[in-house]
Design brief:
Chain A is α+β, with helices and mostly antiparallel strands. Chain A has 17 helices and 19 strands. In chain A, helix 10 runs antiparallel to helix 12. The radius of gyration of chain A is 24 Å and the shape is globular. Chain B is built from 26 helices and 26 strands. Chain B has 4 domains: 220 residues, 3-Layer(aba) Sandwich (Rossmann fold); 92 residues, no CATH class; 223 residues, Rossmann fold (3-Layer(aba) Sandwich), CATH 3.40.50.300; 96 residues, no CATH class. In chain B, a hairpin with a 2-residue loop joins strand 9 and strand 10. Chain D is 58% helix and 15% strand. A 5-stranded antiparallel β-sheet of chain D has the order 1-2-3-4-5. Chain D has a 4-stranded antiparallel β-sheet with strand order 6-7-8-11. In chain D, helix 6 packs antiparallel against helix 7, helix 10 runs antiparallel to helix 11 and helix 12 packs across helix 13. The chains are: A alpha+beta, B alpha/beta, C mainly alpha, D alpha+beta. Chains A and D meet through helix 5, helix 6, helix 8 and helix 14 of A and helix 2, helix 3, strand 9, helix 8 and helix 12 of D.
Chain lengths: 551, 694, 312, 432
């Protein structure tokens, strides 16, 4: 790709970096986004691509045991929980790969190019990659898989992500190894979307809707046994296309055993402590107890990672009393953020500022953390017509222990301001039924690498002006929507940050949500497990993992 | 040491006390008596007088909270109090054995009879299994047990009451004990079965020469069985002596009181009156050591009785009494006393021959269905073709052994049992529905008094409330005068005002029955059905209740239907008597006619089985063979034919009895007998009960 | 009539003095204190009741005050039992928690009824259970058959599942917990009362009532029910113990009383997260509290039963 | 005896019906639906509607109960006009086919406008050919056809409908078609014929996973039963014999103390003590693919938790029964027969004293099996209890019903065994 014309946008990025407007890390991220391969981008930054430093010699063999919930899987595109994706990603793979510091690399793709107006994306497939049933990976597979994403009957969450800018007709198979996407509107985050957890590439020749029946994928492992609610066993594949550091093909492990030990954490912790399992994959259910139980355990390392996962205190603006912005601001002022982070999550995260933009997002525009001010809140309530306070119900899912603690702290701190909060706990499965209906609730949102992604999902209206399906607060703010669509098309980080500054101000001023903290997540693993990292979105990648010695 | 002439058992001022919630209570104090070989000592006394405690003290089985506080028990010269468990075990079941009141409970329900019998032998005399088996079979034959081999394999619940008692006796006699203690062995049995068991006891006594302590509250039984008698009252022996001395010239007021309040077979309500002992037994915690225990109930009390406690002194060779004035009573023989008395009749009897009976039962049939298993239904013919009338103001006594259907008849009259066939007329109105569907004014007219004093009153409500309930329900008095009427009723049954607030648990048996009667009187019924109201009471209290019933009859003209299994009580209170057997009436008629020939053979057998507390009366012995057949498949023809001792008087051995049910032979208008035997032959039989011509 | 009344006159049985109302009301306590086990049990139960009633005087902290500088602390001078995961004083939460279990039934935020949630649950169970037991015991026949089948059906489903389905259907609130406890408790009590009724039905005072043509409702509720009081009360005590247990299990499943109510079950449920992380206090003390209360109730019940049967 | 058992079996059936209807109604009444649980929280309303339709969950309640009970294949074959047959492939997956008069098996697929039939000949050969002649005329120019699709469902395909929709045809790409599947009936034999249906949560037939879970629970329950019952009975007898003496007091207190600690607290504390501090035992019961008995060390803690709770209860019942028997008249007779203490206790008292507890213990087998939900959750032990809890939380009706039925069978079964044991032990009832 080195000889290929470097997109002048990249040059633009380079001089912003030179002017100190762009950190070196962000430049690398954007260059990669624009198709510049890592070694080239590193050279532009004046760094030499450091060779993969290898500590101890790699030891092959052994089966790693991971505690993870084994759900029902039929169509990979329909996967809605992280755990199944962490199991299947070792069988089928994705076109791209976003690493833990949010840099997206080509994976099944060799590389991709994007037009200046960010509306035409050309994806070039790596050649010679074989499915585990011998078929060769071709453009047909990519086209077939993309169409599955957009098929309403399949009902994949990719539909919600991409239908805004891509129609089935926009997918064009150029040649055996090249696909071109014609977007309806400019979109910067296409490579990130291609790594969204349901986006595994399927074998168009054999796939008939049930991945377990025909588990054909290009991944390093093959499905040996799959029993929902009990276990999922993967065996290593001999002819995987990527090579290990010792020259022979990956993976280093002989196999992976995923064991479903239920939602209660005690057995997981117990099992890891006594070595029954090597890793706890707690993507959907891990809490603070993982961190506290293992932080000073001699033979377990807690791989921590800061993420954009957060607990959104959301108010339905179309319901009394939250339609009055003064009431909303009053409640936001009742958040004693240090206390909430300290007690709900034992300081394991970053303080939030009531707008859904993660401080580590590139386009984050730094803002001060609002102070806890019950007096002003009481004053606002009086103005809004509630002189002696107001009684409200707060719906909360009891499975997320930190959310319940967040609610109890808020209830205690909002009382002086005049809020009488009744906390209504219910099992998580019931919360997910009414998370878009309740007036006031605390909804757990998962990590997304780009700031714009979550704003498009939850805070804008569709073209008829109706709130998008996941806009749980029904908050439609004309100025805000325009800014977001504008930001979607701005590649230049600096411009986008200016737009985001305005976006953040609007959210703080009239937004329907309060965010107290962004939470870290953990991937506890035995010390013997080498070469494993925690991923902000909770993905588990064991392709290059190996076990030092008998644990 | 020749043990033959010395005493088998010497008890020297034995005292026993029990630990209760309120601390230690003296149940028995300084009891002394002795027993020689082959002698039978009868211990008689009312419930709670400590007779069983003495028995259990001998075998040292007083339970966790009972203890012998003083005195000594020497058995064959060896002191039993304080004996080690091992030596005690060697004696129990071997040299001393015991028979209990309720044989069914005394046998282990889950072990076969054979095992329970043989273990006594295998343990005490380490017999081999075969030897023990032979010995048991032999002993069962001795106690006249039919088909002993089969009985060995059966379980206790598969035997009848009489058979169970025979097994217990056999078990006791297996090791030929020197002393046999029998604690009310026949109380729970029917009178004919009781008679058979008492015969067996006599037989064994003569055959084995075992000395027996026979404990009972029934004066008739003790008179018949014992050589010498101890009379106990409130934990003390008040009189001791030879059976003739006690019955001819009782020296202690309590003994005399007891004898006077027991209805004799020959007495009817018109000839004599029962003299109840007033007051009630003082509870253990109120027995003052310094005065005569019987003082507050004694009609001949003097100061000395209250100042100091009389002790047992010998006023006649072998006749001791615990009373200062013992000698004086000695020579006033009871019988002359009774006959010399002016006959005090309980007023003119309200019973007169009236043309229209108050209650008229015609060919009544009441059947139960008993579900053994699903689909298989057995019909129990409890009452089968019974016809009987009751005239207003009279008392109809119905007598018969358990299972003869007398209770079912009552239930049919009052409407608790569905009638299968036949009619019941009451005040000329037909009662064809269950009580729930009867009009209130009919229900008002018939009330019932029940047998068991402990369950006749609802323990959750005070006495007053329970009497007021019928008053309110039947509105016999306006609402505001209900309490006043309740107090009047209490007075009518001889209970003080303050019983109004008492709870049933604070009342004695007799008092509870009185409240039951008051409750029945509340609606001023014209007919009261009494289901064995006195059989569960002590003798002294029994007399008071019977007098009360008669007093009510005289005062209010109430008609009674009185059922009981005790012939002397029925004789005393009834104007008419009906004898029932297996759901049918064998004989009915005026009281006097029933108790003298011509008898129906069954009536004759019943009369001969009744134990009479008067040694001077001679009683002919007629015993029925076999067991009472089951009401599910009653015998064909005359139901009594399987056990009738008189069948041989008929030509061809009474075949007719087997085929045809007997018709009704009416003797002078209102005395009927259902028997194939011609009346003439029945007339020739001499009476069962006669005064011994001195 | 002359001589008859004279004859019986001296038979006139004088009554004894009347028991005062006070001594009648003290009878149950006399029963308790006469048995050692019952006294110990009574002491434990009354300890929790007294402590919860006088809670404000026993601890300076409110059950919901969060001292966020000191979460998950062990027992220390100013926090005798330590603090829970939100830095709240465990001793305060325990005694206020006892209130919810034994003394106050929080129907809704405004309305508080006397008598704790567990007591109300058991009271409802008693109401439903004894009525069912009485009817099926006294009436018998097909009614009895149907009721028994229903009871069998309810008993065959594991208790936990029944709780779960009920509270999941009704939602987690104090009222629903009471309803759940009542529905799960009713079969046991119904069986007990049915057994007692079958026995009492044979008594003569019932025959007496029937001979007065009393209605079956009267017989059931006026004549039979008061006589089942003893065994029912003893069984009820055990059931209160199990109800406390059940509230704990519901809390464990996330269906307990809504936070921040300091109900013991939810305390254990929330505290369990930190046991393996080295802070067992938040879960330890409520478990000990539940255990002690249930032990107290069991001892009280056993003592009373022993007392009643020994001197039968 | 036969009548007795027959009567109990009839009662079993009645109770099962009651419970099955009860579970259906309660699950229906509680909020939340399976679609959300399965498809995840961020599902769109139309997706939810089509999903429910595909699983036949949008039918009225009574119909769903009928389908659960009696199955749906008889209705479907009436509509299709051909008998249906169920095969299980070598990899254990079930497949439904329609049976042609010729004996071959046939299934259909709608590709755009035309009907493609997949025929499996008796010799195993699979042929795929167009089969458009099967379309039947419906009103208003519409054509419809009832057939079996590849996903074990009877499907009503319709052509010429007013609304057009994009359908992706393999090889041809997107094509707009005016038709498609409008009604689904998932095929199953129904509970009565041994097929409790597909678990909505795991997508696999309920019977298979239920059997494994039942086996695990049976292992846990039986080991606890075998360990705790004899000990509890023995201690109960000892406590009964030494009534009111120190030993009795101690045993009662100890027994009670264990049975009152909430299971979840007990479980977790045991993990804390044995797994973490002392490190003697594994912290959880993770069996992987081998059966529980292959990893005994993992069974110790759950069995211990279970037994301690059981111990207290059974001990108390046995003690009460023993005290009552020792006070009975026939024991007095035995003593007064001079028999030594041990003969009285073992030959006379013991058998009588065990009658009552035995019946109660049998009732507890049911509790042991299902009631130990909490123990299984705390130890991650995949037994029947946890399975029921998860299905209830998840509202997976097929799994819940099948589990509930097993519980009823076990409950009434153990009651029957208890009654038989009672009559066997108590001759008073055996020989009427």
């Amino acid at each position: 790709m080195s000889s290929q014309k470097i997109n002048e946008q990249v040059l633009e990025l380079k001089n912003q970096m030179d002017k100190g407007l762009l950190s070196r890390r962000e430049f690398l991220r954007y260059a990669a986004l624009l198709g510049v391969s890592l070694p080239v981008a590193l050279r532009m930054v004046g760094l030499v691509a450091s060779p993969k430093l290898q500590a101890a010699p790699v030891r092959r063999g052994g089966t790693i045991k991971v505690s993870s919930q084994v759900h029902k899987i039929t169509h990979p595109a329909q996967i809605s929980w992280l755990a199944p994706s962490n199991q299947c990603r070792h069988i089928a793979e994705y076109l791209t790969f976003t690493d833990s510091n949010n840099i997206t690399h080509p994976y099944l793709l060799k590389n991709w190019e994007v037009s200046d107006d960010l509306k035409t994306w050309t994806l070039n497939l790596r050649q010679g990659i074989k499915f585990n049933n011998g078929d060769e990976l071709t453009a047909d597979d990519v086209v077939f898989t993309m169409n599955q994403w957009l098929n309403k009957d399949v009902g994949s969450s990719m539909l919600g992500l991409m239908s805004g800018y891509l129609d089935p007709t926009g997918i064009e198979k150029v040649s055996k190894y090249q696909i071109r996407l014609h977007l309806k509107r400019p979109e910067i985050a296409v490579p990130e979307h291609l790594f969204h957890y349901p986006a595994m590439i399927l074998n168009h020749r054999t796939f008939e809707g049930d991945f377990i029946k025909k588990p054909h994928g290009t991944g390093p492992f093959v499905l040996a046994e799959y029993r929902e609610g009990e276990r999922c066993v993967l065996k290593a594949r001999k002819d995987y296309w990527r090579k290990g550091s010792d020259g022979s093909p990956l993976p280093y492990l002989d196999g992976i055993e995923f064991l479903d030990m239920g939602a209660e954490m005690a057995p997981h912790i117990g099992a890891l402590k006594t070595g029954e399992i090597h890793v706890i994959e707690a993507s959907d259910m891990g809490g603070i107890d993982l961190y506290l139980s293992f932080k000073n355990d001699p033979n377990v390392t807690v791989h921590a990672v800061a993420t954009a996962q957060t607990r959104v205190l959301r108010m339905r603006v179309d319901r009394k009393p939250w339609d009055d912005n003064r009431v909303r601001k009053a409640l936001k002022l009742c958040q004693n953020r240090e206390k909430i982070l300290a007690l709900a999550y034992y300081k394991q995260g970053l303080l939030g500022q009531d707008f859904h933009v993660y401080p580590k997002h590139p386009e984050y525009c730094p803002k001060p953390v609002p102070k806890y001010d019950p007096e002003k809140a009481r004053q606002l309530l009086k103005e809004a017509g509630y002189p002696n306070g107001i009684e409200v119900n707060l719906a909360v899912g009891s499975d997320w222990a930190d959310v319940v603690r967040y609610a109890e702290i808020l209830k205690e701190d909002a009382a002086p301001a005049g809020f009488r909060i009744n906390i209504q706990t219910m099992p998580a499965s019931q919360y997910w039924e009414k998370w878009t209906e309740v007036d006031l609730g605390i909804t757990p949102w998962t990590h997304r690498p780009l700031g714009t992604m979550v704003l498009n999902l939850a805070y804008v209206a569709d073209d008829q002006g109706k709130p998008v399906p996941w806009n749980e607060t029904r908050w439609v703010d004309k100025e805000f929507c325009d800014l977001v669509t504008q930001a979607n098309g701005i590649l230049n980080v600096e411009e986008r940050r200016k737009v985001f500054c305005k976006i953040e101000d609007i959210m703080v001023e009239r937004g329907p949500i309060g965010i107290s903290y962004w939470r870290n997540t953990w991937l506890p693993a035995r010390k013997v497990v080498q070469n494993i990292t925690a991923h902000p979105t909770g993905y588990l990648v064991l392709t290059e993992t190996w076990i030092a010695k008998k644990s | 040491m020749n043990i033959k002439n010395s005493k088998v058992l010497q008890v020297e001022n034995l005292s026993v006390s029990y630990k209760t919630r309120k601390g230690w209570i003296q149940a028995v104090q300084n009891v002394s008596f002795d027993l020689s070989y082959g002698e039978t000592l009868g211990i008689v006394g009312e419930s709670g007088c400590g007779k069983s405690t003495v028995a259990f003290a001998i075998v040292n089985f007083l339970g966790p909270n009972g203890k012998v506080t003083s005195g000594s028990i020497k058995f064959e010269g060896k002191e039993l109090v304080g004996l080690s468990r091992r030596e005690l075990n060697r004696l129990r079941g071997n040299r001393i054995s015991m028979v209990y009141q309720d044989p069914m409970a005394a046998l282990n329900p889950i072990l076969r009879i054979g095992d329970q019998l043989m273990e006594v032998l295998t343990y005490h005399r380490n017999f081999s299994k075969r030897e023990a088996y032979e010995h048991c079979i032999d002993m069962l034959k001795r106690v006249h047990m039919p088909d002993p081999e089969a009985v060995m394999k059966r379980y206790p619940h598969q035997l009848s009451g009489g058979q169970q008692q025979r097994v217990v006796i056999a078990m006791a006699m297996l090791n030929n004990p020197a002393l046999l203690i029998m604690d009310e062995p026949t109380t729970a049995l029917d009178v004919t079965v009781e008679a058979a068991v008492l015969d067996l006891v006599e037989e064994l006594k003569s055959e084995f020469g075992t000395s027996i302590i026979f404990i009972t509250h029934n004066l008739g039984v003790v008179a018949r069985v014992s050589d010498s008698i101890c009379v106990m009252y409130a934990g003390e022996i008040v009189e001791r002596g030879h059976v003739g001395q006690i019955f001819e010239n009782p020296a202690h007021p309590y003994t005399r009181g007891l004898l006077r309040c027991v209805p004799l077979l020959g007495t009817s309500k018109s000839s004599t009156v029962l003299r109840p002992i007033r007051g009630r037994v003082p509870p253990p915690e109120r027995r003052l050591p310094s005065m005569c225990i019987f003082a507050d109930r004694c009609g001949h009390r003097e100061n000395q009785c209250v100042d100091k406690k009389p002790n047992l002194r010998e006023i006649d060779p072998g006749h001791e009494v615990r009373c200062f004035k013992g000698e004086r009573f000695l020579y006033i023989s009871l019988r002359d006393r009774r006959s010399a008395q002016k006959v005090r009749r309980i007023g003119s009897s309200t019973c007169a021959e009236k043309e229209k009976p108050l209650l008229d039962i015609r060919k009544l049939r009441v059947y139960y269905t008993q579900k053994m298993r699903i689909g298989v239904k057995h019909i129990v013919r409890a009452v089968d073709n019974v016809s009987v009338q009751v005239n207003p103001g009279c008392t109809l006594g119905i007598v018969g052994e358990s299972g003869c259907g007398k209770s079912t008849l009552l239930k049919a009259i009052i409407g608790l049992e569905k009638v299968r066939d036949g009619k019941i007329f009451f005040q000329d109105k037909e009662l064809d529905t269950l009580v729930v569907h009867r009009p209130l004014d009919i229900i008002k007219e018939i009330q019932m008094v029940f047998q068991n004093p402990d369950s006749t009153l609802n323990p959750a409500y005070p006495v007053g409330k329970q009497i007021e309930r019928p008053l309110k329900r039947f509105k016999t008095v306006p609402r505001k005068r209900v309490r006043e009427e309740a107090l009047r009723l209490l007075r009518a049954v001889r209970l003080g005002q303050d019983y109004y607030h008492r709870y049933p648990r604070q009342l004695s048996g007799g008092e509870k029955q009185r409240v039951g009667i008051a409750r029945a009187l509340a609606s001023r019924p014209s007919l009261i059905l009494c289901d064995e109201p006195v059989s569960a009471l002590d003798v002294s209290v029994q007399a008071a209740v019977l007098n009360l019933l008669m007093e009510i009859q005289n005062k209010f003209g109430t008609t009674f239907v009185f059922i009981a299994h005790d012939l002397s009580v029925v004789r005393y209170i009834s104007d008419y008597v009906a004898v029932m057997y297996l759901g049918q009436i064998m004989e009915a008629g005026p009281t006097q006619r029933i108790y003298e020939p011509p008898y129906h053979p069954y009536t004759e057998a019943l009369l001969s089985a009744v134990p009479i507390p008067d040694p001077d009366i001679s009683q002919r012995r007629i015993r029925l063979e076999g067991n009472v057949p089951s009401a599910m498949n009653p015998p064909s023809g005359c139901r009594f034919h399987t056990r009738c001792p008189r069948r041989h008087l008929l030509p061809d051995g009474g075949k007719i009895c087997q085929e045809k049910a007997p018709e009704e032979h009416v003797i002078d208008k209102n005395h009927t007998i259902y028997c194939h035997l011609p009346i003439e032959t029945l007339l020739e039989l001499d009476p069962v009960v006669e005064m011994k011509t001195s | 009539m002359g001589d008859v009344s004279q004859l019986n006159e001296y038979e006139y049985i004088e009554g004894k003095e009347r028991k005062s109302l006070l001594s009648k009301s003290l009878r149950p306590f006399a029963l308790i204190f006469s048995s050692r086990t019952a006294t110990v049990g009574f002491a434990i139960v009354s300890f929790w009741i007294i402590v919860s009633v006088f809670a404000p005087f026993l601890t300076p902290y409110s059950p919901t005050y969060q001292d966020w500088k000191a979460p998950n602390q062990g027992p220390s001078w100013n926090h005798p039992l330590g603090t829970d995961e939100l830095g709240r004083d465990l001793w305060a939460r325990l005694i206020y928690g006892a209130r919810i279990v034994l003394v106050i039934f929080p129907v809704s935020s405004g309305l508080w009824l006397p008598g704790g949630t567990a007591l109300w649950g058991v009271a409802m169970a008693l109401l439903v259970g004894s009525t069912l037991g009485l009817i099926s015991g006294y009436k018998g026949g097909w009614i009895d058959e149907i009721v028994m089948r229903l009871l069998d059906a309810m008993i065959s489903i594991p208790v936990i599942l029944l709780y779960l389905l009920l509270v999941a259907a009704l939602g987690a609130s104090a009222v629903n917990v009471v309803i759940a406890i009542a529905i799960v408790g009713a079969p046991g009590i119904a069986r007990l009362v049915r057994g007692l009724t079958l026995d009492i039905k044979t008594r003569d005072y019932i025959r007496a009532a029937e001979t007065r043509g009393e209605s079956s409702l009267y017989i059931m509720f006026v004549e039979i029910l008061p006589n089942t009081k003893g065994p029912i009360i003893i069984d009820a005590m055990l059931r209160v113990g199990y109800a406390v247990f059940a509230m704990g299990t519901l809390g464990f499943l996330g269906l307990g009383l809504p936070p921040p109510s300091p109900d013991w079950g939810s305390m254990v449920a929330k505290g369990r997260e930190f046991i393996l992380a080295g802070a067992p206090w938040a879960a330890l003390w409520p478990s000990v509290a539940i255990a002690s209360l249930v032990v107290g109730l069991n001892l009280l019940a056993d003592g009373l039963r022993e007392e009643l049967t020994r001197y039968q | 005896m036969g009548w007795f058992i027959l009567r109990r079996l009839v009662l079993l059936l009645v109770t099962m019906v009651i419970v099955s209807v009860g579970v259906f109604i309660i699950t229906e009444a509680s909020p939340g639906n399976v679609a959300r649980n399965l498809l995840g929280s961020f599902v769109t309303p139309e997706q939810e509607a089509s999903f429910l339709n595909q699983l036949g969950l949008d039918e009225p309640l009574w119909k769903r109960y009928l389908y659960w009970l009696a199955g749906t294949d008889w209705i479907a074959s009436k509509r299709i006009g051909l008998p249906l047959e169920r095969l299980t492939t070598e990899r254990g997956f079930t497949e439904w086919w329609a049976k042609l008069p010729s004996g071959d098996l046939i299934r259909w697929q709608l590709k755009g406008e035309d009907l493609v039939a997949v025929i499996k000949h008796q010799d195993g050969r699979i042929e795929e050919k167009l089969d458009n002649r099967r379309w039947r005329k419906g009103g208003g120019g519409r054509e419809f056809f009832w057939g079996v699709d590849l996903h074990n469902r009877a499907v009503l395909w319709q052509k010429g409908l007013s609304k057009k929709q994009w359908v992706y045809v393999h090889g041809k790409g997107w094509v707009e078609a005016a038709g498609g599947a409008t009604d689904y009936i998932p095929l199953k034999k129904g509970f009565l014929r041994g097929d409790p249906g597909i678990s909505l949560r795991t997508g696999r037939p309920v019977a298979k996973s239920l059997f494994v879970r039942l086996r695990n629970s049976l292992v846990l329950a039986s080991i606890s039963f075998v360990i705790v019952m004899p000990i509890a009975l023995a201690l109960g007898i000892v406590a009964g014999l030494t009534a009111e003496r120190p030993i009795d007091r101690a045993l009662s207190i100890v027994g009670m103390a264990f049975s009152v600690i909430p299971e979840f607290a007990m479980g977790i504390f045991l993990i804390l003590i044995f797994a973490l501090w002392l490190r003697w035992l594994p912290g959880a019961s993770v069996f992987g693919n081998h059966a529980p008995w292959e990893r005994p060390d993992m069974l110790i803690l759950p069995v211990l938790t279970l037994s301690l709770i059981e111990l207290g209860y059974v001990l108390r019942i046995t003690r009460a029964s023993m005290v009552e028997v020792m006070r009975s008249p026939y024991i007095r007779t035995a003593y007064l027969k001079g028999l030594p203490h041990h003969v009285v206790v073992f030959k006379h008292a013991l058998r009588n004293a065990l009658i009552a507890p035995i019946t109660v213990i049998m009732l507890h087998v049911n509790w042991l099996l299902g009631g130990v939900v909490i123990v299984e959750v705390v130890f991650g032990y995949s037994g029947l209890g946890k399975y029921l809890l998860d299905s209830a939380m998840y509202k997976d009706i097929n799994a819940l019903e099948a589990g509930a039925m097993i519980m009823v069978v076990v409950a009434v079964g153990t009651q029957l065994v208890a009654d038989i044991a009672y009559t066997f032990l108590n001759p008073r009832i055996r020989f009427k």
